[in-house]
Specification:
Blueprint: E1 19-22, H1 31-37, E2 42-46, H2 52-69, E3 74-78
Helix pairs in contact: 1-2
Length: 101
């Protein structure tokens, strides 16, 4: 079957995902549930901020709300990458060795 060039193609599978970063603002009562109800597909946990307990608590809340709403919500753990430093060492050059903390 060939469609005319002006006919819209309706794909039942949504390929775009909505990613929302969780933090103190999403901890307010009802905010996380509203985010999931309105279409959030992935929650991002920024491990550069907050404690492990904060992230665990938020993820547990996501799982509970998603289960109750019959939604599937993925979790994305955002790990900190290398920090680039652009300054001089106070005591001059430093030699780095493998395995050094």
């Amino acid at each position: 079957m060939t469609l005319p060039p002006h006919a819209p193609i309706h794909d039942p599978i949504r390929r775009t995902k909505i990613v929302a970063t969780l933090g103190p603002a999403s901890d307010r009562e009802g905010v996380l549930e509203a985010m999931i109800r309105t279409g959030v597909d992935v929650v991002r946990l920024n491990f550069s901020h907050g404690s492990a307990a904060d992230h665990r608590r938020r993820l547990i809340a996501v799982r509970q709300i998603a289960d109750r709403l019959g939604r599937s919500v993925a979790a994305l753990g955002d790990l900190q990458g290398p920090k680039i430093r652009i300054a001089r060492f106070r005591d001059g050059a430093v030699t780095l060795e493998a395995g050094q903390p």
